[in-house]
Specification:
152 residues, alpha+beta, Thiol Ester Dehydrase, Chain A, 5-stranded antiparallel beta sheet, elongated, HotDog_dom_sf, Thioestr_dom, Hotdog domain-containing protein
Length: 152
């Protein structure tokens, strides 16, 4: 397989970038983005990014000898988003530890940050014991850019 960094020029999702447009199903009756949509888009961005870099989250045990377990997630809203807004979700490297990592998600409309999310994962072995992040996964995590925005 080629270097994950080389894929980013030709495939934005390999670099953790996912663009989308809101529809009525993403919004409440006033046309304002429903808070739960951010979790769907974070998961879609994360799993698509992993897949574009040669990893499937559901097959990590067979491929790397570990599983990842979601520990926490959150979304902090900074601007109102409404139906038909075009957003970009950019996965960013928040924290990479020895046996867990946090992927951040910056949702932007143009150059404006509208929501900042995060998902933290723990790495476990087949017996569900704590395990170190495998080097292949660590290498892929290392391709994520640092956060572009500071949030309080």
């Amino acid at each position: 397989m080629s270097d994950p960094g080389e894929q980013h020029q030709s495939d934005p999702i390999a670099g953790g970038t996912l663009d989308f447009q809101l529809a009525y199903g993403d919004c409440d009756v006033l046309g304002i983005a429903y808070f739960g949509i951010y979790y769907r888009w974070m998961e879609r961005c994360y799993t698509s990014w992993l897949f574009a870099n040669g990893l499937r989250s559901g097959e990590l045990l067979a491929d790397l000898g570990v599983i990842t377990v979601g520990l926490s997630s959150s979304a902090q809203y900074t601007q109102t988003v409404t139906v038909f807004d075009r957003l970009r979700c950019q996965a960013v490297a928040d924290r990479i530890g020895a046996s867990s990592y946090t992927v951040g998600f910056e949702f932007t409309r143009g150059d404006e940050l509208v929501t900042r999310g995060q998902m933290t994962f723990a790495v476990r072995d087949a017996d569900f014991g704590k395990a170190p992040i495998p080097q292949r996964l660590r290498d892929v995590l290392g391709t994520l850019p640092p956060p572009s925005f500071e949030t309080p």
